[in-house]
Amino acid sequence: MERNSSLWKNLIDEHPVCTIWKQEAEGAIYHLASILFVVGFMGGSGFFGLLYVFSLLGLGFLCSAIWAWVDVCAADIFSWNFILFVICFMRFVHIAYQVRSITFAREFQLLYSSLFQPLGTSLPDFRTIAMSSEVVTLEKEHCYAMQGKTSIDKLSLLVSGRFCSLSPSLITDVLCRIRVTVDGEFLHYIFPFQFLDSPEWDSLKPTEEGIFQVTLTAETDCRYVSWRRKKLYLLLAQHRYISRLFSILIGSDIADKLYALNDRVYIGKRYHYDIRLPNFYQMSSPEMSRSTLTEHFQNSRRRCDK
What we know:
By secondary structure, this protein is α+β, with helices and mostly antiparallel strands.
């Protein structure tokens, strides 16, 4: 304790107090370094945030080293600032290499540019999502799921279809779609960049198991990205941002499917039945009973099927 107190005395109490302050300001390089430090410490998180921070801090330490060499002529100040500049530069190069080395298969590139990039998802976050998935090919008239038979053990997102002409070198993308039916009756289509089984995924808790209540059949050769259920739950538990992202995507996809069903239902005078206003039509037509409404829905469905 006595040794620590004596050290404190030497540093604070017995240190000579500045009696004469410099009247002139330091050079422009010193002030530039201070500005770079202030702006650099305002950087965000993530790979690009780190690039921002280390680039500005590195420039700030470089300016400080130049200031120490030219104006102050202090070897220790110059050495420390130059060492810190080298460390920041090495970190910047390492992070830039990590970002630059992120490459994906063609399906993942399409998926990122069409769905995830507009939502502001960074490449490192998307790489985490892509690494836990696989790309699967579904041939024409093959079933992704069968009603009452296929278990719900994954989440899949339709990406694209491929068509090979007589020449093997000519491979072009075609509009792929998957037909959804229940008891042989058509419900709606699933198009690229839509989930195949978002309602089934949302209907089950992580500890529950279930089977498909619909049949999904490919009308063309399709390719989809698939995440295994347990593996995806583990990923969502580890990354809060990815969990929120999937929650938004799945919720939007379910809403699109509901509106796709809604577009097929008419109720008299060619008006669409609106799922948001279930009681509106009953109120507007009080003489129309519930059984009459049901008959209208069934008749409209038959007309759509024709």
